[in-house]
Design brief:
The chain is an alpha+beta fold and about 325 residues long. It has two domains: about 5-20 and about 85-185 and about 225-319, Gcn5-related N-acetyltransferase (GNAT) (Aminopeptidase, 3-Layer(aba) Sandwich); about 25-80, no CATH class. About 40% of the residues lie in helices and about 20% in strands. It has helices at about 5-15, 25-40, 45-50, 60-70, 75-80, 125-135, 180-200, 215-230, 230-250, 260-265, 280-285, 295-300, 300-310, and strands at about 20, 40-45, 70-75, 85-100, 115-120, 160-165, 170-180, 250-255, 290, 315-319. Helix 7 crosses helix 8 (about 215-230). The longest helix has 17 residues, at about 180-200. The chain is globular and about 60 Å long.
Length: about 325
């Protein structure tokens, strides 16, 4: 997208942080809510025959069906489930990339020349208090946040983010990337430190232990952070759908397959993303695979030759 499109979105939405409440499998309720935007109620028998039959296996929907005892689901039923205990995240937007007409820069890993909207899912206040207490980061240094990525560390800590290419002209959103550094870095570093500890190695050279102890680091991971690993990816994609529908007013969502992302974004061989983020996650939400690229991708002169050379598939979802 062009800088002008991004600035229009920023002016309409603002960059201030907004609350976002989520619990494990909440996306099932939100997807059911999308279906109920089209119909007053949904028969469970019809749902079983649809591509959204998987929703009936998710704990919040199973609990809802069991509690009502009816063969239909309504919006009123869904509202009764919003009291389930969850996490009070925050989200904010920023930008990523550089716009140069008819030329792409593989450093930014965008599919077409231009910039992306970054949708940042930031940790909740409980996490931030415990993190500051246990890890004691320097004011200018946070061990799990790589500021070369589109994260926030000044007023909030970014757990994960999604990069979105948005076309206001065609009414489409393409999920370029969903990524998480913080959780991955914590897990990798803790495993490394514990391995070296067993070997009686000197750990003082590790910056993470400058202001804290290995026991505090363990407590941070096991007592606080562990539940976030189970829901970060689904919470992020669910936020993408909510943001597209409620903030952008866009109903057509595309998501890269592993092959289309690898081909168009210019990944280096050693920096390929986890395949599951581009296979398992969109399928989990009921995205369908198609060989029709987003219209705004097809219109991009820079990409027409590349698109003719290779048949690509994409994931698609209509809200």
């Amino acid at each position: 997208m062009t800088p002008e499109e991004y600035h229009l979105i920023k002016e309409c939405i603002g960059i201030q942080s907004r609350p976002y409440y989520y619990f494990k499998d909440k996306y099932a309720l939100d997807l059911a809510n999308i279906l109920l935007d089209r119909y007053q109620e949904v028969r469970i028998g019809d749902l079983k025959k649809s591509r959204f039959a998987f929703l009936l296996q998710k704990p919040p929907i199973k609990e809802l069906v069991s509690s009502t005892g009816r063969n239909t689901i309504s919006k009123t039923d869904l509202h009764s489930m919003t009291t389930l205990e969850g996490i009070g995240f925050f989200y904010s937007i920023s930008e990523w990339g550089k716009y140069v007409a008819h030329r792409n820069n593989s450093y930014y890993q965008t599919s077409r020349p231009g910039i992306n909207v970054v949708l940042r899912l930031n940790f909740d206040l409980k996490h931030n208090r415990m993190y500051n207490s246990l890890i004691k980061p320097d004011k200018t240094s946070h061990p799990f946040a790589f500021t070369g990525h589109p994260v926030s560390v000044k007023r909030e800590y970014t757990m994960c983010w999604a990069r979105l290419d948005v076309s206001l002209d065609t009414g489409e959103v393409l999920v370029e990337e969903i990524q998480n550094d913080w959780l991955r870095k914590v897990q990798r570093l803790l495993r490394r430190l514990e391995k070296l500890e067993k070997q009686n190695k000197d750990l003082s050279r590790f910056g993470i232990l400058k202001n804290t102890t290995l026991d505090n680091f363990r407590a941070y991971y096991w007592e606080l952070l562990k539940p976030y690993y189970k829901l970060w990816d689904e919470a992020m994609l669910n936020l993408v759908l909510t943001f597209a529908k409620e903030e952008l007013g866009i109903s057509q969502i595309f998501y890269h397959t592993f092959e289309s992302g690898k081909y168009l974004k210019g990944y280096e061989p050693d920096w390929l993303p986890p395949r599951s983020i581009y296979t398992r996650l969109p399928k989990k939400f009921g995205f369908t695979e198609t060989d029709n690229a987003p219209v705004f991708i097809q219109k991009e002169k820079y990409l027409r030759k590349k698109l003719r050379k290779k048949t690509l598939n994409w994931f698609s979802f209509t809200i």
